[in-house]
Amino acid sequence: MFLSPFIFFILGFLTHSLKLHLKFSPMYGPSSYPILGCLISFYKNRHQLLDWYTQLLSESPTQTILVQRFGAPRTIITANPNNVEYMLKTNFINYPKGKPFTDILGDFLGHGIFNVDGELWSAQRKLASHEFSTNSLREFVVKTLEEVVENRLIPLLIQAAKSGKVLDLQDVLRRFAFDTICKVSLGTDPHCLDDLSHVPVLVESFDNASLACAMRGMAPVYAIWKSKRALNLGSEKKLKENVKRVHCCIDKIIEEKKQKIVNENGGDLLSRLLIAGHEDEVVRDMVISFLIAGRDTTSSALTWLFWLTTNHHDIKDKMIKEITSINNGDHKALEFDELKEMKYLAACLNESMRLYPPVAWDSKHAAKDDILPDGTRVQKGNRVTYFQYGMGRMEEIWGKDRLEFKPERWMDENGELKIVSPFKYPVFQAGPRVCLGKEMAFTQMKYVLASVLRRLEIKPVKVEKPVFVPLLTAHMVGGFNVRIHRRFLTHSLKLHLKCTPIYGPSSYPILGCLISFYKNRHRLLDWYTQLLSESPTQTILVQRFGAPRTIITANPDNVEYMLKTNFINYPKGKPFTDILGDFLGRGIFNVDGELWSAQRKLASHEFSTNSLREFVVKTLEEVVENRLIPLLIQAAKSGKVLDLQDVLRRFAFDTICKVSLGTDPHCLDDLSHVPVLVESFDNASLACAMRGMAPVYAIWKSKRALNLGSEKKLKENVKRVHCCIDKIIEEKKQKIVNENGDHMKNTDLLSRLLIAGHENEVVRDMVISFLMAGRDTTSSALTWLFWLTTNHRDVKDEMIKEITSINNGDKSLDFDELKEMKYLAACLNESMRLYPPVVWDSKHAAKDDILPDGTRVQKGNRVTYFQYGMGRMEEIWGKDRLEFKPDRWIDENGALKIVSPYKYPVFQAGPRVCLGKEMAFTQMKYVLASVLRRFEIKPVVDVENPVFVPLLTAHMAGGFNVRIYHRDG
Q1: What is the CATH number of the domain that holds 253?
Q2: 595 and 457 belong to one structural domain
Q3: Where is the signal peptide, in residue numbers (predicted)?
Q4: Can you tell me the mean pLDDT for 585-603?
Q5: Distance (Å, rounded) from C-alpha 534 to C-alpha 223?
Q6: CA distance 140 to 183
Q7: Is residue 84 part of a domain?
């Protein structure tokens, strides 16, 4: 009885051991000899160690090698992302820094965060993580950067440009970084940039101590430096002296800071740590770690990228183009949000650090025996090193062009930064020890790049490729000697040189193109589309009497520039907000700046909640199953003709009112009756649309001033809408008071906004915007897709096949089922490509500019991107652009293709991208799936192409009259 557990344990142990044995991969590595190991090969290759290791790793089947040399631990070096993930995350606890590593840096870094493991690391990590996450630190960093860059670095470079003096840019950047990190970390200023011929004691001692520690790590035989330390000789004696001077300087700063804290609080890290009550020695060791990370890594990365820009002028030009598009003033300091927008600069930094990582490798020491994912056996005490320099040069990771500098590899087709696994690109480490200062580092590096490149030209004195040397952080051997030149081409001259002639309709003095506009007023969309397709840039200029100079574009590059790259220069603008202002007030769709930003954050939070999604699906089930489907069943029985467009608009209004207002207008209950709110809403929408399409704006403005005709009616209709919504708000507020409100937080949007404490008028304007977006856009899209299915039976059959394969009964649909319906989504996308619910969207330039296609934009111009025309451009969609082909949205694996929102801006893009996109697709799929699996829809009149009418949202002229039939089976 007692032997059974023992035998079971032995068998289990043997099975585990056998598994370990079978998993082993044979180890590849340099030639090794008894006792010496690979010391001979190591010595031969000591001047090209990085490239030697890289070659060995690329030849290894697993991208992992074993290096054994006399006097050093058994060392495994890997460039395999699976191994890196395993070390840094999956089995993190087994791969600490380890005593051999902490011995190398211990005399200098002490018990600082970069040189400890276990509980001591965990405690410091929590402390540092808290401090690095504060907005106040971020603001302090940006303020410090502005001060050091604008008052020291730029003046120094301008002076060098004037004098023609040669500068060691690497030294300048290291001095700049030390000044900056000392101000951020210590709240003190070493003034390294003030005199390039002088090296402060702290800096000199810091550099010497760093170098000595790096030489320890690269020593062929570790016993040598350990013996010298024990005897206090040579380099070890100097290291001890330099560390003492560094400690003395920092200790003095700490004492002064403690005295200063009594009187005032500082924004720097040292003040924060001391205020928190941490001991002096702990604080000293932590800030020394921050100094080494914050100075050497950023200056190294900047040095190599500046060198790369001197050999890749096309890339440098793109960098400057992005910088000037976001901040084009030579004297305006950069803001955090502007720096965050500079995606191409981030891509360039990533690509530079891929090839020239500031830290070439990082070592751990195995706490116990293990096996890496590639089968490599690890013994307790082994050094296991992941090799960033080599990983950046592995064909298996980066492809055949791995040795080329290509920032575009970091950008997706939408112009966004790709998300790359940190285990494939561990420049900022990964897992629990991922770099806390990554955002700070990118902020600093982008600030320097943007400030320098927009003002100055850098030219190396020598053309030879520099030598990359890894110490604690990498540097360029012999420095980076350059001459600085001013950029003499002014921004205005650049604008003039870049301008291209603008295509457009015939235009006459005073009248502009008013005659052509009037002639084509009944086919405005197709006229604009024709003009755009004939334009070499897919951009046209429309100038007509009584309206702002208008640029219309169907060029995706221009759309991306307006909606993202230079978003700040293209607000809605006063001319647009005037048109809709009487109706939408200060709702989210009709405001800019801080008011838009505040409402966007509020709405974004509400739209991201699972509770709202659940409430939407529940509401859809209720309205579809209890109203829409019974109405269609009745129509099928009676043979009655239905205007399906009207039915869908009523359905959408019922649904959006329940979701937005928590009230029910019952529009579907009686198709012969139009509720006051709906009628007034429609009339107000129509009147605003006619304002926007008026040939001469002065007419409607005069009528409004005199309260005449259509403007008088608009005023009356808006008043009725406001009256209805105000009444609903008051009732809702009373209900919240009576029912204590808590359970209503997870219901309609109105309840959520009122419980959050927002004012009535703000709430009213927001929900009116939601009503317009949620009713008209979805009903328009559904109307056109239902019409298209009547002419494309093969597409309809494929839709029904997908619906029934996912939900083959009459039961109501759930969110996950709807999400699975990829072909339905493709059909919706294709329908909205040809018949977009919103045909155009206009912005108004805040200042002079030039679009990417060379079109000159003047301050105050209306700049319109034209979704209807974009869906019909051969340059975007090919020769079959006018055909309805949902398959163009499906890839070879049956998944939805990711299409740039700047090529297909139906849901807008950039910061103003539609928050309700998921809700809209959920609603439209629910209706399509519920109707198509039950009914056949047949138009009463076989019209080849119904008339597409653009108002605020598009509709089908004359409605969509159909008969409904039950689907057989």
Answers
A1: 1.10.630.10
A2: no
A3: 1-17
A4: 76
A5: 77
A6: 10
A7: no
pLDDT tens figures, 465-507: 899 988 777 889 999 999 998 875 444 444 444 555 678 787 7
Residue from 69, 94, 429, 96 nearest 218 by CA? 69
How do residues 696-713 score in pLDDT, each as one tens digit? Answer: 667 888 888 888 888 899
Check whether residue 861 and residue 779 sit in a common domain: no
- Residue 376 domain-assigned (yes or no): yes
One-letter identity of residue 58? S
| Chain segment 20-29, per-residue pLDDT in tens | 444 455 678 8
**Exposure of 674 by Cβ count < 10 A (0-12 exposed, 13-18 middle, 19+ buried)?**
middle
* Ramachandran category for residue 672: left, alpha or beta (phi over 0 → left; psi -120 to 50 → alpha): alpha
The total of other beta-carbon atoms located within 10 Å of residue 440's CB is: 23
Tell me, yes or no, whether 589 and 578 share the same domain: no
Q: Quote the percentage of the chain above a pLDDT of 70.
A: 92
Determine, yes or no, domain membership for 38: no
Higher-confidence residue of 409 and 577: namely: 409
Please check whether residue 816 lies inside any domain of the structure.
yes
Q: Are residues 408 and 440 in the same domain?
A: yes
Q: Is the pLDDT of residue 4 over 60?
A: no
Write down the pTM of the prediction.
0.54
Q: Which two tokens stand for residue 654?
A: 């019922």
Same domain, 449 and 573: no
Residues contacting residue 233 through CB under 8 Å, at least 6 positions apart = none
Domain count for the chain: 3
pLDDT of 783: 95
Give CA–CA dist 786/962, Å, rounded.
Answer: 10
Statement to judge: residues 290 and 308 lie in one domain: yes
Mapping DSSP to helix (H, G, I), strand (E, B) and coil, where does residue 363 land?
strand
Whether the CB-CB separation of 173 and 448 falls below 8 Å is answered with yes
Mean pLDDT of 26-51: 81
Q: What is the C-alpha to C-alpha distance for residues 322 and 944, in angstroms, rounded to an integer?
A: 47
Same domain, 858 and 946: no
> If you average pLDDT over residues 633-645, what whole number do you get?
95
What is the DSSP-derived secondary structure letter of residue 537?
T
Cα torsion 231, 234, 239, 245: sign: positive
Q: Which domain holds residue 866?
A: 498-584+837-870
Between helices 280-309 and 438-453, what is the axis angle to 10°? 40
Residues present in the chain in total: 969
d(CA 160, CA 167): 7
* Sign, Cα dihedral of 282, 285, 289, 294: positive
